[in-house]
Amino acid sequence: MNENQRSVLVGSWVGKSDSAFQDARLLFENGRLASCVNRLYYAVFYAASAVLAFRGQSYGKHSAVRSAVHRDFINSALLDKEQGRIYDILLSRREQSDYQPSVVFAVEEVGEYLDKASIMIGALKKIIGQ
Known about the structure:
By secondary structure, this protein is an all-alpha fold. Helix content is 78%, strand content 0%. Helix 1 (3-29) packs antiparallel against helix 2 (33-54), helix 1 runs antiparallel to helix 5 (107-127) and helix 2 (33-54) crosses helix 4 (81-99).
């Protein structure tokens, strides 16, 4: 992949992250908390995928992206441990919201996820100069 192709790919991931985060805000405002958690996870996942693409890395599984986030960003102190923790929580809670129909989220809990996801996305975008 040449530099131009990589730049387009990174921009696409960032655009998907921004869109998913905007969707999450709308869902939160409308009390659709499980769907909000889903979109928050994907907003962070897409932002992480943008940074990985920027670095020439690509993974086909969520577990591989999670491992790369911890190995390449948390363990190297590009991101702090709290951001690794929020990534893991969002992944877990997204899986619960998708596969456990009786899961219930509190407004305060999801509001906290919204704030922390925003911080993490900003930190990831800063790595790639956005």
